[in-house]
Amino acid sequence: GMAYALLGLARAARNLGELEEAEDALTQSLSLHRDIGNQIGQSETMATLGQLAIRQSRFQEAEDLIQQSLSLMPETNRYGIAFGLGLLGWAKILTGRFDEAETLATESLALFGDLGGRVRVVKLSVILARAHLHAGEYGAARIQAEAVVSLAREADYDRGVGYGKGVLGEVALVEAAFAQAYQALQESLFTLKEATDDPWNLNQSAWLCLAARGLEHRHEAWQHVVSTLEGASQGQQFMPLMVALAGIALLLADEGETERAVELYALALCHPFVANSRWFEDVVGRDIAAVTVNLPAERVAVLGERGQARDLEATAAELLDCLLYTSDAADD
Fold first, then answer.
1. Cα–Cα dist 26/100, whole Å
2. Which of 56, 149, 268, 315 has the fewest CB atoms within 10 Å, i.e. is most exposed?
3. 3 state SS of 198
4. Given pLDDT bands bounded at 50, 70 and 90, which one contains residue 248?
5. What is the DSSP track for 73-128?
6. How many Å separate Cα 115 from the centre of its chain?
């Protein structure tokens, strides 16, 4: 009973963004489950530790924990297996292995479909849509995202509607349909804010930055960057932070600050989620490459090395401080 109470406490703390408290409770829970030989409890706790590691961008650790969780889960516990496969698929997305993510999400989706878990089907469909998106399968991503919105409405799951609209906005971005992207992302943002107060839910401001830039609303684009950086500093939001870095690089390139743009995008490219993504290449990478044509190749290489040497969290904090200072100075 104490082991499961600690697991519940950890999940509540996680949802409130109290990650250290969550990890401490999970460590205690896992120890108790091991002491009494409860394999299912160990598996559930390891899976939750894997979720926590994902939130903290410790992706290899997350994968190891989820794999251990799956190895302990009895074959008869189809829900536990489906959950673990889906969680592993999300970890694969964030580490740039989109084909593997697609396979895992499809397997998990089939299991949850048989079990009748409608909300889980929606969540797995979001993972599958993102796998298609970053693999460059934009038509499949749109179809899957539209299915997410429809399924979420049937299940009365508003967060799912928000997630689906977010992916539809991302598809529109790659098509340079910026007005359509802006509308879908705004609807996604509003829906998610209304549906949950979990600080880790995807903040669409990063993607809205790209849409606002496409519409030539540059001041608004920078405002969305600030919002994303503030959220990332509080919630360890890896994916929005990667998109925000890409957006900042594009905005800097537009302003003629080519070297800063190249250096920042090099930092994003350190991460396989960006480096292996066709979506990032089509939305951001080509534009950054285009502005480097007037720079000597040796200089581009130096800027790339400088970007790769940067610390992600320190750079995000530095950018936020700089943007807030600029905003305050402008107000004065």
1. 28
2. 56
3. coil
4. very high
5. S-TT-HHHHHHHHHHHHHHHHHTT-HHHHHHHHHHHHHHHHHHT-HHHHHHHHHHH
6. 27
In whole angstroms, what is the distance from residue 306 CA to residue 264 CA?
Answer: 9
Which tokens hold the place of 318? 């530095």
Cβ proximity of 149 and 164 under 8 Å: yes
Locus of tokens 């040796």? 298
Mean pLDDT over each residue of the chain, to the nearest integer: 92
Task: Let me know: does 149 contact 121? Beta carbons within 8 Å.
Answer: no
Count the Cβ atoms, other than its own, within 10 Å of residue 154: 12
pLDDT at 193 over 90: no
- Residue (of 201, 260, 276, 277) closest to 234 by Cα position: 201
* Residue 205 near residue 232 (C-beta atoms within 8 A): no
| Tokens encoding 94 | 């964030």
Tokens 């790769």 appear where? 308
Report d(CA 168, CA 295) in Å as an integer.
36
DSSP 8-state code for residue 295: S
Closest to 15 in 3D by CA, of 48, 62, 59: 48
* Token pair in block for residue 168: 């539809």
Residues in the chain: 332
Token representation of residue 187? 């609807």
Write the DSSP assignment of 3-45 as a string of letters: HHHHHHHHHHHHHTT-HHHHHHHHHHHHHHHHHTT-HHHHHHH
SS3 category, 161: helix
Q: Average of pLDDT values for 249-265?
A: 95
Structure tokens at 307: 């970007």
d(CA 89, CA 93): 6
Task: Answer yes or no: pTM beyond 0.85.
Answer: yes
DSSP assignment letter at 255: T
Burial class (CB in 10 A: 0-12, 13-18, 19+), 211: buried
Provide the token pair at 151. 């399924």
Tens digits of residue pLDDT in 141-184: 999 999 999 999 999 999 999 999 999 999 999 999 999 999 99
Give the list of residues 6+ apart from residue 27 with CB closer than 8 angstroms, or none.
none
